[in-house]
Amino acid sequence: MNQSNHPFAFSEQLLERALKTIPLGTQTFSKSHTVYPYGVSPFYAARAKGSHLWDADENEYIDFVSSLCAITLGYQDSDVDAAVRSQMEEGTLFSLPHSVEIDVAESICEMVPCAEMVRFGKNGSDATSGAVRLARAFTGRDRVAVCGYHGWQDWYIGSTSRNLGVPKAVQELTHSFKFNDLDTLHKLLKSQQGEFACIVMEAMNTEEPSPNFLRGVQALAREHGAVFILDETITGFRFSKGGAQELFKITPDIATFGKGLSNGYPLSAIAGRADIMRLMEDVFFSFTMGGETLSLAAARATLQKINREPVIEKLKENGEKVVSGLRVRIAQYGVQHIFSVSGHPSWSFLNIKDVDPYTNWEIRTYLFQEMFKRQMLMLGDHNMSYAHSTEDIKRLLCAYDEILPLIREAVAEHSLLKKLNCKPLAPLFRVR
After folding, report:
1. Which of 174, 368, 198, 161 is nearest to 276 (CA)?
2. Which fold has domain 9-64+311-419?
3. What is the reported pLDDT for 429?
């Protein structure tokens, strides 16, 4: 509890304590002090309910981070919590599989176009890594063509600037191509003809796929004998009931899911063609905590609610209010040279440009500082949940009404750094 006038005193005490025993002070880069600027940010949560989060100092926020898109329904959703409590009374982990595995697998197969069989992991990196191993087993090939962000494991992260500790031989097996640029993918596949096991990509991130792009990727995968893997860790059960593949009418060979699948409980899934998925009987993909029933019960309740209530529709409706309202304000306040908006309404992005003499990271830091002052928890994107209300959207847009003119003036007057109450954030690595 905060015992001083500094609004983040206890959070900073916790961070100081954590750094003594936990590298980075937490388990996730995107929740660490590398993302939240020290001195103007909360660092630790105390609790959350619906669309609101309270930090360790009892500051209350409207949360547009939504735990990095993992919270689709809202924190402490009553249906999900009831399902978890009920399952807890029967047990969490057993010496035998539990039928809840079957229930969730059947639901995914009913909802997702590509899903004929399903295997479960605990996080998105499990699923994407399992899918790549599966594709390598199916094709007898080693190379991977990749676009977007796909987790922490060696096969992917070795292709980024965060490749410390990844063997060079592993790094050399993953090759990046540009989103919405079929030519780069075509050249890549031809450069190592017959060596690519799979193409792994997000259907959409900061920008929409151009017409025929996804179908073009699928056609190139078939032409070159590669497995087409769609990473739906974020887009699954958010863009549509059947994910981005349903929205964009493209059926991959394999798809991976996580985050919103279980509304904050640790669960991921690989789903796809039965002839490929049956290789999971031989490909080693196995966890002591695989089949843990609380997360599966949460997923079952989450999917039931998505099918029963207008979850997807509300995510889109409220997200469109944010996107359209922000675009109006960017024009109104004359900050088009600094900001633009992109992405899907349920997962939209405020894009920030370098504007002489400031980097986008310096501008971003000022934005965060001012947002946190106004009880808005956001990191440059708007991750909508079913719990966000009309009032939440109104308050967010009101915050932009106050902040955008401040940023415009600070940039024009070359006074932005003087207005910061903290050190500017430094770039991490960019994959989208």
Report:
1. 198
2. Aspartate Aminotransferase, domain 1 (3.90.1150)
3. 66
